[in-house]
Amino acid sequence: MAYRVLVAQFMHETNTFSKLSTTLEDYRKRWLIEGADMVPHFTGTKNEVGGYIDSAKKYGWEPVWALAANATPSGKLTRECWETIRDKILAATRAAGKLDGICLSLHGAMVTETEDDAEGALIEALRGIVGPDVPIATTLDLHANATERMARNANALVSFRTYPHIDGYERAVQAAALVQEAMAGHRKPRCLLVQPAMLEGAEHGRTTAPGLMRDLLAIADAAEKEPGINVVSIQVGFTWSDIPYTGPSIAVSHEPGAEKRAREIAAGLIDEMWKRRDEGAKSNYRPVADGVAAARAGAKGGKGPLVLADGTDNPGGGGYNDTTPVLQALLDAGIEDVAFGTIFDPGTVQQAMKAGVGAEIEVSLGGHTDPSMGLPVKATAAVKMLSDGTFRNDGPMNAGVETVMGPTAVLRIGGIDVVTISNRIQTIDRQVFLSQGIDPATKNVVVVKSVQHFRAAYEPIAREVIVVDSGGICSPDISRLKFTRLRRPIWPLDGINEPYAGKRPA
């Protein structure tokens, strides 16, 4: 008899400091796919749903496809958005009848108008439907603000182990394998979570260079080989969220009788994170002027483009995707042979489409969401290309997954080709440019709206990478963030001298 396993995805990384609410339309712009339509959409892709599809085939499951929903990070989900998608998943669960297991793909940092811990609420509701014995495993983003409520209701929290996140598929395969073992009676996993009094930690999870996060993952890998330990996940947290649960945590899925050892493992990882808490990547952010100076200096014998990452306007962290200081600075400096990806400005795209390819138009580009983060760029632009903005990622991140930038215009302003879009996206794939007739590898300068994920695709072609702070909403300077609901005391905002602020867990 085949095991009946429900598969669902509901993802969002919520920047509560953003003024942009997240609506159902925002999910439709990325993806909101119900039922069996999930299978053709994600078969062959290297994301979590693709991993569950392949696992269902491998184990001969009778899958129940509930829903896959993902939206670009922004502000809190509206109540309508949250309840509509949540209720579709719960309705599919109830309609399924008897289930043997549940495999989820969640982010772990979703906040709604009514729920600070949306994923915890969803898993708890699912647990209430299926009862205490049905195994539930979920993948989480490495930047999850994970909670005890999530761990209490799930059998395993399986977080990404790479940043850029290129292992979503593998983590889903890992989660599915544990569910299979549990359904077959070979394992009886349960999960615990320990969170220190830390707002930040482990260099925000960067794994592209040796450092604390890689060292922590090596400890976690070794611990997973111990008897009774199933999964050891390190969540570094998502800082730009004003909720009580923001910050790093350790989740350990373990067998009965191994809880003491699981807590020791979690405590050891937190102690190491605390001991090395001053190791960080903030110094990687440089002034915009430094990026312009490097662009002006030219290649100096190096091959490939200078890649300038506008890290504080990163749409992957809730950035508005339309701040203009970097673009304006490059124009003022007269830098030539630049590909800029991207500026979110649906109005200007429509203006370009009305004018047509080859036309010259007067634009007021970007700077519309919050002009304090850069005024609109006023210039004459030549319309070089128009498209529907749809492509499939080449990878390494989310290889095969469809991205929809919405109606898109390539505008040439001075010596800069600006990919101007109608749906906010993070630039993680070279197809952002290649699909629009621009080969980034041949450019002098490539600007990306991203802070870290771009590295997987762009670092291999870059002669140099510079991450700049343009003053956007995703600033690494936490003194700019006005927390009112965060648990206190907490490092580094308060003077504490141990990782639990005197409230060491049992």
Structure explained in plain terms:
This protein has 506 residues and is α/β, with parallel strands linked by helices. It folds into two domains: 4-275, no CATH class; 282-475, no CATH class. The protein has 14 helices and 20 strands. The strands form four sheets. A nine-stranded mixed β-sheet has the order 10-20-11-19-12-18-17-14-13. Helix 5 links the parallel strand 4 (101-106) and strand 5. Helix 3 (48-59) packs parallel to helix 7 (168-183) and helix 8 runs antiparallel to helix 9. The protein starts with a strand and ends in a 37-residue tail after the last strand. The model has no long low-confidence stretch (mean pLDDT 96).
Instruction: Please state how the strands of the largest beta sheet are arranged side by side.
Output: 10-20-11-19-12-18-17-14-13
Main sheet?
9 strands, mixed
Overall number of structural domains: 2
Distance between the termini: 42 Å
Care to give the gist of this entry?
The chain has 506 residues and is an alpha/beta fold. The chain contains 14 helices and 20 strands. The chain folds into two domains: 272 residues, no CATH class; 194 residues, no CATH class.
Task: Fill in the keyword field for this structure.
single chain; 23% strand; 14 helices; globular; alpha/beta; nine-stranded mixed sheet; 28% helix; 506 residues
Itemize the secondary structure elements and their pairings.
Layout: E1 4-11, H1 24-30, E2 31-34, H2 38-42, H3 48-59, E3 62-70, H4 79-95, E4 101-106, H5 118-130, E5 136-140, H6 148-153, E6 156-159, H7 168-183, E7 190-194, H8 212-224, E8 229-235, E9 249-254, H9 259-275, E10 285-287, H10 288-297, E11 306-310, H11 325-333, E12 338-344, H12 346-355, E13 360-365, E14 377-387, E15 390-392, E16 402-404, E17 408-413, E18 416-421, H13 431-434, E19 445-448, H14 455-458, E20 464-469
Parallel strand pairs: 1-3, 1-4, 4-5, 5-6, 10-20, 11-19, 11-20, 12-18, 12-19
Antiparallel strand pairs: 2-3, 7-9, 8-9, 13-14, 14-17, 15-16, 17-18
